[in-house]
Specification:
The chain has 169 residues and is an alpha/beta fold. The chain has five helices and six strands; from the N terminus they run E-H-E-H-E-H-E-H-H-E-E. The chain has a six-stranded mixed beta sheet, sandwiched between helices. A hairpin with a 5-residue loop joins strand 5 and strand 6. Helix 3 crosses helix 4. The longest helix has 16 residues. The N and C termini lie far apart (30 Å).
């Protein structure tokens, strides 16, 4: 893997008809933001080869909206990404790292946010960049990292829907 993209799911409805968190669908604004961010990432040349998607309905619907911008990407649903910690996300990434040059993970906070901060700190990113990531990781946010041969990260962009006219909360 030469690049890792962490993508927080788009804005979801506060409740699911089933009452279960895992079943929460995307809100209309979330669908719009996810599609927008797919286009933003594609324009930046950040097209994944493989996408790991949490088993939650909102992450799968987020990927469905993103996928239009990435027709060559393969997606895999991962039960273990649902509400995963940063360490659990790293384990999922490491398990498939050799399968793709660019890997995207579509999952949840707080795990994604924590991992993004950890990678920024590991990369010795400038304090203002670390502060920006640490301050918020709203819905429809992507943090991209290039990875060197030893697996060390370097920041490759932070993309938030609201910066492109979206609503990300």
């Amino acid at each position: 893997m030469r690049r890792l993209i962490l993508f927080r799911h788009a804005m979801a409805e506060p409740r699911a008809p089933s009452g279960e968190d895992i079943d929460r669908p995307l809100a209309a604004a979330g669908r719009s933001d996810a599609a927008l961010m797919g286009q933003v990432l594609a324009r930046q040349g950040l097209a994944p080869d493989l996408v790991l998607v949490s088993a939650a309905r909102r992450t799968q619907e987020t990927w469905d909206c993103l996928a239009e911008a990435f027709p060559k990407a393969r997606a895999r649903i991962c039960d273990d990404l649902y509400n995963a910690s940063a360490e659990e996300i790293v384990a999922e990434v490491q398990a498939v790292a050799e399968e793709a040059a660019t890997l995207m993970v579509v999952a949840h906070n707080p795990g994604l946010h924590e991992l993004a901060i950890e990678l920024m700190l590991d990369a010795s990113a400038p304090p203002h960049e670390v502060d920006r990531v640490a301050a918020r990781f709203p819905t429809s946010t992507a943090a991209a990292f290039q990875m060197d041969e030893a697996g060390r990260p370097s920041p490759d962009g932070l993309f938030q829907a609201r910066d492109y006219g979206g609503e990300g909360e």
